[in-house]
Input
Amino acid sequence: MTDARRHKRFYSKDLKGITLDQSGGEGDALFSEEADDASSNADLRMQYVIKYVTENTDLSPKKADVLAREIFDQITLALKKGEDVKIPKFGTFTKVSLQGRPGRHPRTGKAISIPAHTQPRFKASKKLRDALN
Output
């Protein structure tokens, strides 16, 4: 069974009606310094997302993993289709097409051609920007 089908099965059967802990204090934030004392850097990794979801919902770690991966998979699929992904109070993911351009190889300095390609972009919502300032 593929990962996508396994995720869909868990999502459709087991994740309906989940409730988040609404305590909402500053120290409860996923991005806070207290989120994981073992981490020496500020990177937010999937394991921390899963740990946070597990601690603040009634989901098992396995179901939290499936939920987190399904969310990111759905964002990726929507962007591949050319759709914008708007998450209220968080921000918007969009897909931007960039034209080809000349460039330089960073090690050799040799002129190279950078082909046209597509990149994801994220624009934070006003609420998120205000929370950071």
User: Anything to note?
Assistant: The chain has two domains: 1-83, 84-133. The chain has four helices and five strands.
